C-alpha cells in the first residue's frame, strides 16, 4: 500500500530499501561516535586522570600534542601548546591513546 502511495516501482524496491538502510547505518555510526565522546568525557571528568592546569603529552605518531589543559568538556579537552595554539582533543581519544602527565597542578 505504501509502495503505491510513494510511487515506488516494484523493480526499484530493493534499491529503495538498501538506500534507507544505508542512511540509517550512517546515522547510527554518527550517534555512536557522539555517545562515545560523551561517555569518555564523563569517565575523564569523574576518574580524574588529569585536571585543568596539568601539563600533558598526548602520545600519537601522526599528531603528538604537548601542552597545558585549559578545559575539559563533555565532547573534548582543550589543550594550549607552547606556541599558544589551542588544540581540541576528543575525549574518546584521550582514553584510547597514551597520555603522559608532565606536571600536575
Structure description:
With 105 residues, the protein is an alpha+beta fold. It has a single domain, classed as SH3 type barrels. The chain is 44% helix and 29% strand. It is built from three helices and five strands; from the N terminus they run ααββββαβ. The protein has a five-stranded antiparallel sheet. The chain is elongated and about 65 Å long. The termini are far apart. The mean pLDDT is 83. It comes from Capnocytophaga felis.
Layout of secondary structure:
Elements: H1 2-6, H2 13-47, E1 55-59, E2 65-72, E3 76-81, E4 86-90, H3 91-96, E5 98-103
Antiparallel strand pairs: 1-2, 1-5, 2-3, 3-4
Summarize the structure.
The protein is an alpha+beta fold. The chain has three helices and five strands; from the N terminus they run H-H-E-E-E-E-H-E. It is elongated and about 65 Å long.
**Biggest beta-sheet profile:** 5 strands, antiparallel
Strand fraction equals: 25-35%
Helix/strand order: HHEEEEHE
Structural class: alpha+beta
Percentage of residues in helical conformation = 40-55%
CATH architecture group name = Roll
- Low-pLDDT segments: none
CATH class type = Mainly Beta
Multimerization state: single chain
Question: What would the CATH topology be?
Answer: SH3 type barrels
Got a strand count?
5
Instruction: Determine the mean pLDDT.
Output: 83
**End-to-end gap:** 66 Å
In the residues, how many domains can be counted?
1
Shape annotation: elongated
Radius of gyration: 21 Å
Question: What is the number of helical segments per DSSP (H or I, 4+ residues)?
Answer: 3
Largest sheet: spatial strand order: 4-3-2-1-5
Domain Mechanosensitive ion channel MscS: 34-99
Organism: Capnocytophaga felis
Transmembrane segments: 12-29
GO cellular component, one term: membrane
